[in-house]
Structures are given as C-alpha cells and as structure tokens.
# Entry
Amino acid sequence: MDVRKLQKIAVTALEDIKGRDIEVINTRKLSPLFERIIIASADSTRQVKALARNVHDKVKEAGGEVIGLEGEEAGEWVLVDLGSIVVHVMQPTIRSHYNLEELWQAAPASSRSRSAPKTPPLEEDATEEASASPERTTVAAAAPARTPRAPTPRATRTPRNAPPEA
# Structure
C-alpha cells in the first residue's frame, strides 16, 4: 500500500477516537527501516489501547498489512508496526519522558555545528507537507540538542574491618 494512503488511514483512525497532538515525522532519509513515524497522545490506558486497536483495524479493513502490535498489556505506550509507518500511541507523561520527536529530528551535534544553511525541501517533500491537514503537524525542523550531564561522583566506602588510616 502507498505510504501516503497508509498515513492518511492511520491519522484518520487516530482522529476518530480523539487522539491528541498527532505528529507525523518523515524518516525516509534517517532510517531504511520505515518512512514515517506517527506519534499521538491519549488520556488513559484505555484510550491508548483503543487508539492503537482502531489503527490496526482500519488498516486491515483497507487491505493493509499490520506487522505487529506491542505494548497493549500495559497500555501506557502502544506501538503499531505498519511496515513503512510506525505508529506510537502514548500517554502524555510517557511521551514527554521519551521525547521521540526530538530523537528523530535532531542531527548529530558535530554535524549541526558545522552544517551549511538549511536547503529547501525536495519537490516531493514540499508536496507532502502542503497536503497535511491543519489538525496534524509534519515536523521538519531540527530541535535543539540537550546538553549532556556530567557523571556524579560515587561515595567511597571503607570496609568494616579495615585498619584506621594514619
């Protein structure tokens, strides 16, 4: 099935059950494993499961293939693998903790500091972005990188039977 058609089916299925903050990220140039990531939020474990199950059912009804459904037991984060698209349905706390949007948009820090000005999108990418509905956002800009934390020193312990230091 065409990736754009599959994307439309998945986003519509998420909107049907009131999925919130739906984002579509084009990963074609970042990973050979899939072309899009769709991320949506839900208010409860029940809604997370219902959204994921609805995406699964709507894709199957349209004749698409669902490779896998992971995380339904816990219901905090359910992943629906559609082959060329991976759908993540998460509760807001889990979504903010893992921050997949930043992970899939950020360029490596070394290449970001030396990179040339951003080039305009290819015609195919521009067409895809123009066709996005106002309810969802196709993320294209890189997010700022996080500053790594310095490791905290561990306290040293003296064995119980050790002689006192002089």
Observations:
- The longest strand covers residues 20-26.
- The beta strands are 20-26, 36-41, 68-70, 77-81, 85-90, 137-139.
- The CA atoms of residues 11 and 22 lie 8 Å apart.
- The mean pLDDT is 75.
